[in-house]
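User: Some background: our group keeps a shared notebook of sequences we're curious about, and every so often someone picks one and asks for a predicted structure to add to the entry. Today it's my turn. The entry only has the sequence so far, pasted here. Could you supply the structure so I can complete it?
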Amino acid sequence: MAALETLRDVTVELLVRATRGISDGSLLNADTGRTDTRARLDDWAGVLSLYAGENESSSVRATA
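Assistant: Of course. Here's the predicted structure to add to the notebook entry:
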């Protein structure tokens, strides 16, 4: 009976460690993804600002 309890305790400990590792890895991946996305959005904002003058001056009007 003691052997089953020991096996159960070890199994639970391994499961907890594995789950914690997966969760930590997922959080790290999410943080990295947010950082990459923010950097790309900032890059595009800089590029789009170069063309803002051109887009504002050439307006197209449609009449029916």
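Suggested note for the entry: Helices lie at 2-57. Residues 48 and 55 are 10 Å apart (CA to CA).
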